[in-house]
Design brief:
There is one protein chain. This protein has helices at 9-33, 35-42, 52-85, 92-118, 123-157. By secondary structure, it is mostly helical. It has one domain (3-157). The longest helix is centred in the last third of the chain and has 35 residues, at 123-157. The two termini are 34 Å apart. This is DUF2975 domain-containing protein. The chain crosses the membrane at residues 21-38, 58-78, 98-117, 123-140. Keywords: Membrane, Transmembrane, Transmembrane helix. It comes from Streptococcus varani.
Length: 158
């Protein structure tokens, strides 16, 4: 049998997700490339607190910071997915990458909360969404961590 005959639905799903992550990475890079234009469009809407040049600078700087966090998330997701595709599911490195993802998304939530309260109100929606996503990632990370503990206990019992 050739490798193509052994391809499962999960293998196809992993490949499609990897392609999606690559497209998202490239899109994120493109958006960072036109960051000042995007901020120029956003600045036209009213602000809860900051105005003028200060607001533009805060939005632009925070946007680049959020872009870098997005790239880090995409890279960690890609690495995590690669290991899972290789059959390395319940390993300590995956728990570490899930921890990184939790911190990265949590930072996005905090930055978005700051931006929503001071410079661009709709960012509060991102803050709420990322807060929920952070908790979901933490639950998955904890499940992976417990699975590794159980796996180690079983290995030592035999």
């Amino acid at each position: 049998m050739t490798k193509n005959q052994n391809t499962t639905r999960e293998d196809i799903s992993i490949k499609l997700t990897k392609i999606s992550l690559i497209i998202l990475f490239l899109t994120s890079m493109a958006l960072m490339g036109i960051g000042s234009w995007i901020v120029t469009q956003v600045v036209e809407f009213p602000s809860p607190f900051f105005e003028g040049t200060l607001r533009f600078g805060i939005l632009l700087g925070s946007g680049y910071l959020l872009g870098c966090l997005a790239l880090a998330c995409i890279i960690h997701l890609y690495q995590l997915l690669t290991r899972i595709g290789e059959g390395q599911v319940f390993i300590a490195q995956n728990v570490q990458y899930l921890r990184y993802l939790g911190w990265e998304v949590g930072l996005v939530a905090l930055i978005s909360l700051f931006l929503g309260l001071t410079a661009y109100l709709p960012m509060l929606l991102i803050a709420v969404s990322c807060s929920l996503l952070t908790l979901i990632i933490r639950v998955i990370r904890n499940a992976f961590g417990k699975a590794i503990e159980l796996q180690e206990q079983v290995d030592y019992t035999i």
